[in-house]
Design a protein that fits this description.
The protein is mostly beta strands and 246 residues long. The protein has helices at 63-71, 235-245; strands spanning 9-12, 18-24, 29-33, 39-43, 47-52, 56-57, 98-105, 116-123, 127-136, 139-148, 152-159, 169-177, 189-194, 217-223, 226-227.
Length: 246
């Protein structure tokens, strides 16, 4: 097995790219941060170290380094210690993916001034590698990207009252997979949502739910493998419907 340590810079053996080792998921998989800042699960056997942790470039010793290495032979680098990831408890319902964004006020008694916490909920038996974005003019801004374990939730960000307008149009994309076991193929998901920021100031918008002890405002991304779709009706369609009623 390749010897990897957290902080090593690696290139991928059979594909273009590389990055920095951030940690280990199990004995076969390392989490590598690529040049764009995305965390990618990669087989350790597919990683080739090009620069060890501590900025020691492999195969590029200076004359002084070579003399020093002869006088003081380096100790053998210990093999990276990895801890096997616990197998998450699976449920029958979890084979169909349900995900949502959840918003919780930090001070529910002062909705006119409070900030909000945003979470991504993964209600499924699958690992999800996802990207959470907001729209700015004609482009998109990534607000959080990473992976989330099965049947859990992850904190994304804290939002101030003055930042709510940034969330009027958001999008979440993800791919689903399982570690070290066969699984049913799931299509990649890409969903755009319109967030009604007026709801953040109404107490009844925050409701009892299955994921938090506190009341929360939920925006579903996918329910039982079915992506949420916006219901967009044009002005022309509304006008035609009114004429038909007449």
């Amino acid at each position: 097995m390749n010897k990897l340590s957290v902080g090593d810079r690696v290139r991928f053996l059979n594909t273009v790219g590389g990055g920095t080792v951030k940690g280990f998921l199990n004995k076969q998989l390392a989490m590598v941060e690529d040049e764009h800042g995305f965390d990618l699960p990669v087989l350790i056997s597919e990683c080739v170290v090009v620069e060890a942790a501590g900025n020691d470039k492999l195969g590029q010793l200076s004359d002084d380094d070579e003399l020093t290495s002869k006088e003081h032979p380096p100790q053998e680098k210990p093999e990276a210690k990895v801890t096997a990831t616990e197998i998450p408890e699976e449920t029958r319902e979890g084979e169909k993916i349900t995900t949502c964004l959840a918003f919780l006020p930090t001070d529910v008694k002062n909705l006119s001034t409070t900030g909000y916490e945003c979470y991504f909920v993964n209600d499924s038996n699958y690992w999800l590698f996802f990207n959470y974005m907001s729209r700015e003019n004609n482009s998109w801004k990534s607000r959080y990207s990473g992976s989330v374990e099965p049947n859990t939730k992850i904190f994304l960000e804290e939002i101030g009252k003055e930042q709510l307008n940034e969330l009027e149009k958001v999008s979440v994309q993800f791919i689903a997979f399982k570690h070290n076991k066969p699984y049913r193929f799931k299509n990649p998901c890409s969903v755009e949502l319109r967030i009604d920021t007026v709801k953040f100031f109404k107490l009844h918008s925050f409701r009892e739910n299955d994921y938090f002890d506190e009341d929360a405002l939920l925006y579903y991304i996918m329910r039982s493998d079915q992506p949420e779709r916006e219901l967009l009706v044009s002005a022309g369609e509304i006008e035609r419907a009114l004429r038909e009623k007449e």
